[in-house]
Amino acid sequence: ALGGMLIGALVSGFMLAIFMANAGGAWDNAKKWIEASGLGSDKAKGTKYHHATIVGDTIGDPFKDTSGPALNILIKLMTMMSILFAPIYPQKAFDEEWWWVGFIIFVVFFIIAGGLWGWMRHTGFGKIDYKTVNTIDKEDGDDEEALELVPNKGDGGHGTSYQDSAQEIESLRRQLNEAQETIAKLKNQQS
Description:
The structure is a single chain. 69% of the residues lie in helices and 2% in strands. With 191 residues, the protein is mainly α. It has helices spanning 2-35, 48-85, 99-123, 130-133, 161-190; strands at residues 135-136, 147-148. The protein has 5 helices and 2 strands.
């Protein structure tokens, strides 16, 4: 039984560690690619695509930096502890007459888990109120309005901030082109 548990833990832990390391790296690289305008300048930093990769990177960093490598330590620790304590356990550790104890533990666990889940659903524990937490509050004495972080879900998940920023970028590009033309005219007049 111990050998089966160790083999199962080793195989599943190894596969999970590889998955977590690869998925975390992919999420991290996706954010870097978007920031480098990999999808084009209209889908670069500050767009909804970039916001989505930030969410993915928030999960990806712990995957590749902590959870994946920690499974390696867990596999080693499980193996060492089983080798150390295997001689101490009796040959027949499971008493078939006491099967009901395991069943009681199983039922109590599921009652507690179900009750906790029901309480969380009923009280709204863990729900995010986007109307109150979706802004960076202005500090005392700051005249600027609060900054919206993520589009409100009330408008279908798409705020107008992306359209506004696209229009603002286009306006800035026009101003830049006009300034470059003025500089070129001034250089021609001097020569």
